[in-house]
């Protein structure tokens, strides 16, 4: 059984999905973290696509969710913190637009969810990756609110970006994600829309939990 949440950056997908997973004791899958991990390989390859694709073919990417964090490793070395740097955020959308990268990540995800009850979040899960998902949500929120949320989350060990810089990064990523040819950010026709601008975090978590619990009971 799988529930998917799609939506733009900062709309609340990841923190909401994690809270739902913990409340209902189900598995969580963060597709953005996988695109960020692949972007690390791209940066490691000096942004040379030939070298990058060689690294991609050889790399063993593993992941698991525990203690409220989605842990990712490349060849058994943890990269969970390294995938959140501004450099990765700047390049991830251009890497995620490559069809070969999408095929790679989609395969990882489809294999992962074969057993168990999952909640997964990303951009194209309801449209391209899991079109037959049991439940689909599309989360949105105003750009100003999303930028404020991401700005408030910044870690002290990361170079401080201004609110304006954070807003610009989010806006540029949204634009690239929504306009790319390969599986763009898009609301699935059968997705339930949740605008989180004026919702409390608890409200959106409870709303999704209710839908999933109803389905599990049936
Ligand atoms: O957490 P945030 O919303 O900032 O981004 P993320 O979920 O970590 O995703 C990072 C990037 O990965 C997005 O901006 C997209 O370019 C890409 N992505 C994608 O193309 N398809 C997905 N299903 C998930 C993420
Ligand atoms: O995954 P995505 O990029 O869509 O968003 P996120 O990483 O979950 O970040 C959203 C941030 O906004 C988190 O710090 C949430 O606690 C916060 N937030 C929210 O998600 N929903 C609200 N109604 C209010 C705040």
TrEMBL record:
Residues 5-212 form the Cytidylate kinase domain. This is Cytidylate kinase. Keywords: ATP-binding, Cytoplasm, Kinase, Nucleotide-binding, Transferase. One of its GO terms (molecular function) is ATP binding. Its main location: cytoplasm. One of its GO terms (biological process) is pyrimidine nucleotide metabolic process. SUPFAM superfamilies: P-loop containing nucleoside triphosphate hydrolases. CDD domains: CMPK (cd02020). HAMAP family: Cytidyl_kinase_type1 (MF_00238). Its EC number is 2.7.4.25. It comes from Fodinibius sediminis. InterPro entries: Cytidylate_kin, Cytidylate_kinase_dom, P-loop_NTPase. ATP binds at residues 7-15. Pfam families: Cytidylate_kin. Belongs to the cytidylate kinase family. Type 1 subfamily.
